[in-house]
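Need the bound structure for magnesium ion, inputs here:
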Amino acid sequence: MTKSNKSVYMCFSTDVIHGGHTTIIQKAAELGELTIGMLTDDVVASYRRFPVLKYDDRVKILESIKGVSKVIPQKTLSYAENLDLFKPDYVVHGDDWVKGFQEPIRDEVIEVLKEYGGELIEYPYTINEEYEKLELSQREQLSMPDVRRGRLKQLLRMKPLISVIEAHSGITGLIAEKTAVLKDGKTHQFDAMWCSSLCDSTAKGKPDIELLDMSTRLRTVDEIMDVTTKPIIIDVDTGGMTEHFVYNIRTLERMGVSAVIVEDKTGLKKNSLFGTDVEQTQDTIENFSAKLAAGRAALKTKEFFLIARIESLILDRGMDDALARAFAFIKAGANGIMIHSRKKDPAEIFEFCEKFRAKDASTPLVVVPSSFTTVTEDEFAKRGVNIVIYANQLTRSGFPAMQKVAETILTNRRAKEVDDMCMPIKEILTLIPEDY
Ligand code: SPV
Ligand code: MG
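Answer from helper R.:
Posting the output first, comments after.
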């Protein structure tokens, strides 16, 4: 076929270029002048996995391939914006998107093409074991401590808001790693995992009073790390004695954890959501600042976050106290602030964000909306929040489901009545692929 004056469009995201890609690029280039829409890093991270090669490098590679005329950014998974702009005669894709996750994207492409008389051309997609192995090795790289640790910082640069869900075991880690939804042409995945003291303790049938020792907490982190690639933020409660805290955070940093959140309480820690119903003691600004400074000095990398958690609103100590602490803790060495509240009304959280951001435009701000659940991520982002942690929802949803099944079996003295409440046997057997 000779090259015509037609225009052709393809979308790429990959950081592993293989023969399958170059073959389809060649075929597309034979149809006309080929433009590649390269998915931006934030889109790749939300749809597939964190890109090992960043946007600029991926563009350079594609530009150097014979047949590619130019490479432009595609800023959403949806092709609509670029198709409207360039109105290519052809869109080329492998036929692997006919079914599955990308089906609605394909449907939209067909619709947009129909509007101006463009055509979709699909070539058979070849599954090649070598390519699959390449992809797997990229994923393995992402799980290595040095790569994983730095990804939280990279994500904060890439996206206005990081969405984090709790994980307390291998299986909840996999849910955090793999759950994805497609909505309005955009994909959503959790960016990172929260290793919650509440959920880690609950999973072991223990109260959330800093009872689990650090070895047990590290074991949970290791279990999650073993089967996932996303960054981990760990809740280290009060951090314990400063002399122990400095060792523990260095261990976490070396393991590839990206951030610790340490709260400004002292003595016997109780869960914050008890508020003032139980006795809880807030540390002094001086003591806690000294703990943070010691922690900062112990760390080895620039990419690790030491996030100070402020309990002033939880303990009804007021906004001024919360703000004074935030600025003092940053001065002492914290490079992130978590502000907590147990109120359903987000007003005090919003007020803190506004007053904090008036003086500090860049330090990452973290919230845990367990009580103020009505606020959307977009709203948080507008108010200057950088990290939203869904701290306990997997535990709170899994536990009642199991309890109901246990009660139903006891009531009926057989398992038939719970058949529909349970995942089919076949699915549980294949839930975890053996080659993960
Ligand atoms: C946790 O998840 O363990 C937390 C957050 O510390 S909260 O339970 O809201 O205090
Ligand atoms: Mg906790």
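Comments: DSSP finds 17 helices and 17 strands in the chain. The mean pLDDT is 94.
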